[in-house]
Amino acid sequence: MKIIFQDNGNYLNEWMHALKHSLPEAEVRVWREGDNEAADYAIVWKPLAAMLDGRTDLKAIFSRGAGVDGILLSGAFLPDQVPVVRLTDAGMGVQMAEYVTHAVLRYFRQFDLYAEDSAQKVWRPQTTRRREDFRIGVRGTGVLTTKIINSLQTFEFPINAWSRSAKQ
Fold it and tell me: Measured between alpha carbons, how far is 101 from 97 in angstroms, rounded to an integer?
């Protein structure tokens, strides 16, 4: 099995070590401009078109992120028979839920205004917001967004979610 890996400067050594440790029988190489040698699989994140263009030998392309738009928008000619696989979570869901929940609570409780006042050494009490009047909208209802929604629901915020496709 031959794997080409796209180096975009993020954790290359860690990725190469993990791949070689997990797949000792695989020949894993970092793709460089002009590398047209055959490969069974490509592991990428927002690849250059030249990396994937016309690679009919690929059995699959793996995105290192939750989305595949970076692959689909690369401008590369991708044969129809080559599946594009994306991560569904890999720990990102909890991190995103923490980040969004923190941001929502900071804004809802107006900590941004208190921080500004503190920097100016003044104290101005803010009007308490009513949770039911603080509607939150999210775009998408996939694996990652569902973790965010579940996190925010623990605080009983009204939430509206929009998705391009129907969910069950």
Answer: 6
C-beta of residue 153 within 8 angstroms of C-beta of residue 130: no
Work out the pLDDT band at 86, boundaries 50, 70, 90.
confident
What was the pLDDT predicted at 143?
Answer: 84
Domain 92-162, CATH? 3.40.50.720
**Could you give the C-alpha distances from 117 to 48, 58, 122, in angstroms and in order?**
47, 57, 5
pTM here?
A: 0.65
Length of the chain: 168
Give the number of other Cβ atoms within 10 Å of residue 64's Cβ.
19
One of 3.90.1150.10, 3.40.50.720, 1.10.10.10, 3.40.50.970 is the CATH number of 2-85, namely: 3.40.50.720
**Cβ–Cβ < 8 Å for 92, 66:** yes
Q: Each residue of 92-104: b (16+ CB within 10 Å) or e? A: ebeebbeebbeeb
Distance CA 58, CA 155 (A): 46
> For residue 106, what are its two tokens?
């900071």
